[in-house]
């Protein structure tokens, strides 16, 4: 046996320990508990009777050595792949990437993937453990260490990415951290249950919108398509826009600027996507059958529209099928799924895109979010603008 290759990777079990285990496998160890003997595979027990303990040890180490050598090659390739992907993104490699790439970050931990031959030497307890260890060649992914807590942040659940849907139109996937989603829901609930809170807008002909609505900053009247200081139906003043909402919008815009500067060749990032600090927000709650027709947002002040200041939209809860397009014809619209934690931004050249929510996808909200907040089935949307 070539022990140097083997020693580079992990400390081998001592021959004595192997001998001890081999005796257990052969069923002749006086200390062996009866239930352990039941786990010995009969075929291997017979085979092992025909050779010495030392030969048995060699039979075990040989395949193990090959597997370890394969594991190192496989891990190196995966690490290179991970580094390449990351260098394209100009970001540093994370623990998560290393795990996804199939390589544990802690090289101190020696992980052994037992070969089939080793199974015969395992105690009952070890066999149970082995069942949970992924085999390196059946999957490229190595499990993360066990987390004793449930995922508490959106980063734990999903990876944050960004999509450019058009000029000045960016979708920040899973951007809002879990705890901020929780805070947004609880703030919207608090405001929504007070004066100027959620109601279901209707038209003079009796038709009702397919969503509940609350305005912040200024009231938006869907029937007259105009902003005002007070709501027509109950004269309530809309609640003020909470500072934490404004900060999150500004953060998302700053982040988008950085992404545009790094990844897109634009002469002036401020032209591509002008920055703004919102002063109005429409909070929509879509039940499972909620929707909003294909429309343009063009009722803010002329200054805001001329500057093509962006619309920033947060999605929380169930996912939505969002349609958007340059033309009024909904049949020519593109579709994108907006999930909990997503931030959609459209400003600059995309400020006047047509858009709408075709459908809510039921039961797609993260269960932990529902458990934590008690949010009803449906989707919460906050759409921010500069009036
Ligand atoms: O819910 C959405 O994502 C869109 C809302 C919207 O278009 C609006 O409030 O004008």
Automatic annotation (TrEMBL):
Cofactor notes: Binds 1 Fe(2+) ion per subunit.
Keyword Mitochondrion tagged: no
Residues reported in the UniProt entry to bind Fe cation: 295, 297, 355
An MF annotation (GO) of this entry: ferrous iron binding
A single cellular component GO annotation: cytoplasm
Domain Fe2OG dioxygenase span(s) in chain numbering: 277-387
PANTHER family recorded: 2-OXOGLUTARATE-DEPENDENT DIOXYGENASE FAMILY PROTEIN, ALKYLATED DNA REPAIR PROTEIN ALKB-RELATED
Record-given protein name: Fe2OG dioxygenase domain-containing protein
Lineage: Eukaryota, Viridiplantae, Streptophyta, Embryophyta, Tracheophyta
């Amino acid at each position: 046996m070539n022990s140097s290759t083997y020693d580079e990777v992990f400390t081998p079990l001592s021959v004595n320990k192997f001998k001890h285990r081999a005796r257990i496998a052969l069923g002749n160890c006086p200390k062996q508990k009866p239930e352990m003997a039941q786990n010995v595979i009969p075929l291997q027990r017979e085979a092992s009777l025909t050779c010495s303990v030392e030969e048995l040890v060699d039979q075990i180490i040989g395949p193990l050595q090959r597997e370890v050598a394969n594991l190192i090659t496989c891990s190196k390739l995966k690490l290179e792949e991970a580094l390449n992907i990351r260098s394209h993104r100009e970001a540093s490699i994370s623990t998560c990437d290393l795990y996804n790439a199939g390589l544990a970050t802690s090289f101190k931990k020696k992980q052994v993937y037992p070969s089939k031959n080793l199974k015969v030497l395992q105690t009952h307890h070890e066999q149970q453990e082995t069942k949970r260890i992924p085999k390196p060649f059946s999957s490229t992914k190595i499990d993360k260490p066990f987390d004793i807590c449930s995922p508490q942040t959106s980063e734990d659940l999903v990876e944050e990415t960004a999509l450019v849907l058009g000029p000045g139109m960016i979708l920040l996937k899973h951007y809002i951290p879990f705890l901020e989603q929780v805070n947004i829901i609880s703030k919207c609930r608090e405001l929504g249950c007070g004066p100027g809170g959620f109601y279901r807008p209707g038209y003079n002909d009796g038709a009702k919108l397919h969503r509940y609505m609350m305005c912040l900053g200024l009231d938006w009247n869907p029937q007259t398509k105009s902003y005002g200081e007070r709501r027509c139906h109950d004269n309530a003043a809309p609640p003020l826009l909470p500072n934490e909402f404004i900060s999150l919008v500004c953060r998302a815009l700053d982040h988008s600027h950085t992404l545009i500067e790094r990844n897109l060749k634009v002469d002036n990032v401020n032209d591509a996507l002008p920055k703004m600090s919102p002063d109005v927000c429409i909070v929509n709650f879509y039940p499972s059958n909620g929707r909003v027709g294909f429309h343009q947002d063009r009722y803010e002040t002329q200054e805001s529209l001329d500057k093509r200041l962006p619309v920033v939209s947060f999605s929380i809860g169930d996912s939505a099928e969002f349609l958007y397009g340059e033309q009024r014809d909904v049949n020519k619209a593109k579709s994108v799924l907006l999930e909990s934690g997503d931030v959609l931004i459209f400003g600059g050249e995309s400020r006047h895109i047509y858009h709408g929510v075709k459908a809510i996808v039921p039961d797609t909200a993260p269960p932990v979010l529902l458990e934590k907040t008690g949010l009803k089935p449906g989707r919460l949307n906050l759409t921010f603008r500069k009036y």
